[in-house]
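Service request form, structural biology core

Requester: graduate student, group of Dr. S.
Request type: structure prediction, single chain
Budget code: on file
Notes: please return the result as structure tokens.

Sequence provided:
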Amino acid sequence: MTLEARASEMAMPIPIPHNEADRVSALHAMAVLDSPPETDFDDIVQIASEICGAPISLVTMVDTDRWWFKAQCGPIGVRRRRAR
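Core staff response, request fulfilled:
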């Protein structure tokens, strides 16, 4: 059995909260998706990484069909896109 097949077998479905539409609406109202980096968020991930002794720390916004990395510390293999 391949590693991908095993991972697929072990994956649990993620339940969708009853207020998912409200959560997504609030996220869009904050206008944070596709926004440029902000020092405060960069500071938060740096502090979290240091406190937890973790090489990677993220502030991630989850939309209906994507993840937006607002801030990141450490190598995650994904680059932050610039705002349009």
